[in-house]
Protein: Aspartate aminotransferase family protein
Amino acid sequence: HPDSLSHIERSRKFEPLSMRGMPPIVWEKADDIYVFDKYGNRWLDWSSGVLVTNCGHGAPEVRQAMIDQINSGLIHNYVFPSEERPELAEAIANVSPDPLKKVFLLSSGSEATECAIKLSRANGIKVGGREKIGIIGFDRGYHGRTLASQQAGGMAGQKTWIVNLDPAIINVPFPDGYWENDSSFDGFLKAIEKSGMKPSQIAGVIMESYQGVGPDFAPVEYIQKLRAWCTENDVVLTFDEVQSGFGRTGKFWAFEYYGVVPDLICCGKGISSSMPLSAVIGSAKIMDQFPPGSMTSTHSGNPVCCAAALASLKKIVDEDLTVNAARLGPILEEGCRAVQRKYPDLIGNVTAAGYVAGIQTIKRGTKQPDHDLAHRVIELCYQKGLLLFAPVGAWGQTVKICPPLTMGKEALEEGIAVMHEAFDQAVA
Ligand code: PMP
Structure:
């Protein structure tokens, strides 16, 4: 809407360039599966912000819990004991497998993964000496924007500013079976050998249980071998569930697809469906390595964020939102596959699980990513009232779809029809 231009201009003037790139809607309000501007426009939301609003935008239960907490007057308490922080820690422990029953609350996903890397190294040094500090991440992985988390991530193009890369943080191929042909666990072992590090020098492996850029799972057999290898070599295995946790993939945790349990879970985003909150979840052995006062953060477990998270988790569980994503996910997947069948030489790969799907565009008949096509499709969807965030992927080739888990069949199908129209127009 033309009247929104002044707000966009102001953003351009006072916010860094890096904050641009999304469809130019000035959000005014949001309600469950819809986002509105103040000029009477409404969009069906296929972004969930950025995979945050798992229980819908502005869920009444979440808002009320926050209001009650605010009205109590307690809106900050640092590490001083309070009721809601341990209550949330217990609630998260209850949805986590044994022996992962200690929960450290932080504010962002990046802080959680940074903390997991630190815990892995501390454990490595303890069990294997000063050389056991290697951290392994995966190509095209994403763990956040703090120093170690970004180094462990595998977005090569985003690491150009890291001049003296920590030599003990390396990336190995992600076995997605599309961009990477070798999906065998031997590929992992070979990459470590090539790095010059011995398994005895590795402290941790960090991996998204469902890699966000595709999005994509690794083969089950690969992960089972990885789990065994980590155990044999005293390596802390972290699954980054910042995107995939809290029901997104049709299981509460995406790692449930593999039938293994990691040593650490990092989560964030959908943990509260709203407020900045994240968590590292692990066993007492790994989590209790630092003495009182030495693993904290000013806003760790902020009471309002905890209240929001407790209400969001309750809604996800009580309303079976994970089950909703699992039940309707196949409709979303089929909607994406139908586009691929129509344009097989323009769509390289389609992946989906629960309420997250990705369509990876390619230049006609090649295996070259096509950012422009993905961008055009998203732009057309936006013009037609369907909101997606800007293309993701290592080359910006992915149209990624992640509705709130509350979205019903009718709205989902409406979105699919709009997406089909957008593809038809974008390729015409
Ligand atoms: N890990 C994954 C898998 C993520 O998707 C993200 C955020 N996109 C992060 C970590 C970082 O989280 P945050 O942006 O809250 O720091």
Observations:
- The pocket of 4'-deoxy-4'-aminopyridoxal-5'-phosphate is lined by residues 50, 108-110, 113, 142-144, 208, 212, 240, 242-243, 268 (CB under 6 Å).
